[in-house]
Amino acid sequence: MMSTHEPLAIGIDIGGTGTKFGIVDRIGNVLFSSEMSTKKHKTIDTFIDELHEHLSTLIEKAGGIGRMRGIGMGAPNGNFYSGTIEYAPNLPWKGIIPIAKLVSDKFKLDVTLTNDANAAAIGEMMYGAAKGMKDFIMITLGTGVGSGFVANGQLIYGHDGFAGEIGHTIVLPDGRIHEGTGKKGSLESYASATGVRLTALEVLENSSEPSLLRDLDKDTIDSKAVYDAAIKGDKLALEIFEFTGKILGISLANAVMISSPEAIVLFGGLTKAGDLILKPTREHMEENLIQVFQNKVKILISHLKESDAAILGASALVWEKEK
Amino acid sequence: MMSTHEPLAIGIDIGGTGTKFGIVDRIGNVLFSSEMSTKKHKTIDTFIDELHEHLSTLIEKAGGIGRMRGIGMGAPNGNFYSGTIEYAPNLPWKGIIPIAKLVSDKFKLDVTLTNDANAAAIGEMMYGAAKGMKDFIMITLGTGVGSGFVANGQLIYGHDGFAGEIGHTIVLPDGRIHEGTGKKGSLESYASATGVRLTALEVLENSSEPSLLRDLDKDTIDSKAVYDAAIKGDKLALEIFEFTGKILGISLANAVMISSPEAIVLFGGLTKAGDLILKPTREHMEENLIQVFQNKVKILISHLKESDAAILGASALVWEKEK
Questions:
Q1: Residue A128 domain-assigned (yes or no)
Q2: B147 in the same domain as B281
């Protein structure tokens, strides 16, 4: 039973399409939650007005503002130190947005901001697969590829609060160009949803091998379609996962040799392909590790409910700050 | 003037060829130092006996064992948690060597061990170019390539104490094979002394361009020879540094996007080439960084005296432990 005096935290996860928010207790129960469109708000002001309206209803249900200990927010390019979102390519608001201050002024509550993958890392450390770990890497494989590095029990924010961008590290120099950044050969240009789709189109183009994927309209080819073909034994579909796993495996090996984690926690759409993606990833990771790191690092799949994970992670920032 | 009560620390740096050791005060003066051969000792026992003999003389000169607060040691593949050296390819002793315990038993002093690049990082943080910084990366460019990552003011040792091995991260998948590890395309196989030499031989082989380097006996071509040719404007020599800087620059960009440091401190032989190597390194680093990281991270050259740096870094482990 919920005590009426128990402190609660608000978690807000801002994504390019939608924003999820909810009220969470200290042990990680999402008590109330909802979502709204991010995309339709051309200005940050109307976005915050709508967010405030929705959240006020939830806050009342949960016992009023007095029980709220603070607000944790995850957002692409969210900066922990400055509380600003800076040049986020997938959000409708350009430039530098002082979102933590704007939300704090509106709600009269403390606001802690970080990028979405860092928030996910704290959520996993507090409630998920990384519970109790002091050194691990969180990797989110979704529309983009994000990461959070935890060392000595602390999230690494770095000197200016933008650390953890493994998705933009270069795995194949002079490789595929990333549409958002213009950089060549980054992890995200291969291991994201878009990346897998592009690999599929390339593999189909460069081979004359028959494939179930050839029966599909090109526009509908995505990692789910590749998965469906691969479980039927489709050779090209398997090749697409093998290639994606090779790139991801090399990148994980590099991250392991730098930070020597206990585990890597994977989260997001691509993990639904299970061993089809995990097996080549693990193999290429081990193959590229030097001896002292081999056969030590666990690759774990997040077991947090996908609908709750983003809110949980964001809310965890509030408790993390109080530590 | 040296107070007779001031506590002192012993620093020992074990290298593949020689071992340096000395006695250091808290503000980083190396009061007494000397060195001995590592290579000639087939067993760890005779190595420690000789080390004890030499150091005992220095300890007496410095006021006796009572003033020694502890021993800090840097060694390849030195593990901070276990105090062991594990499978170090360049040392004469194979397998797992419990060196911290052996040295501690012999000297009756506390011993802290880590790998040589991590020790260098702590030395730079305490006395060198990274003084006062909380987030930086130390890179040692010598016979091998080592690194130490400092985040939130703490060295990252990782879950089992081997973190910081940027030299073994893969920069060019399926690239040049590393003789010691068997891995392909690692930073160390390009940005080490051996790596630069191999690049020089490859560039000479694959081009018919005239070069001052063609006048040399192949066995004598090293980064010094490439430097001498490059400052005379030799086109192939410049190309060798450009290529090396490209590989190093990509690797630094990746490290920056993961850890968002205030600065990168470079140390070791290759840095003597100055702008010939730094300019391409910086250019390729910036080129591969996404916008939020660009034009922010300083690349600094260590200004510690090369003869003292290893001893200083090792001794700093003693004070670091007391923090």
A1: no
A2: yes
- Residue A2 forms part of a structural domain: no
CATH of the domain at A271: 3.30.420.40
Contact B169, B254 (CB under 8 A): yes
- pLDDT the model gives residue A77: 87
A82 interfaces chain B, CB cutoff of 8 Å? no
> Comparing B214 with B308, which gets the higher pLDDT?
B214
A249 and A314 housed in the same domain: no
Chain A, residues 164-193, CB within 8 A of chain B, namely 164-166, 168-173, 181, 183
pLDDT digits (tens, 9 = 90+) for B186-203: 999 999 999 999 999 999
Contacts of A164 (CB under 8 A, 6+ apart): A115, A117, A118, A121, A146, A147, A148, A149, A155, A156, A157, A158, B258, B260
Strands A145-151 and A136-141 come out as: antiparallel
Residue B128 inside a domain? The answer is no
Q: Which two tokens stand for residue B82?
A: 């276990």
Classify residue B243: in a domain, yes or no. Answer: yes
* Cα–Cα distance for residue pair A208/A226, rounded to 1 Å: 17
Give yes or no for A158 touching B (CB within 8 A).
yes
Domain that holds residue A75: 8-123+307-322
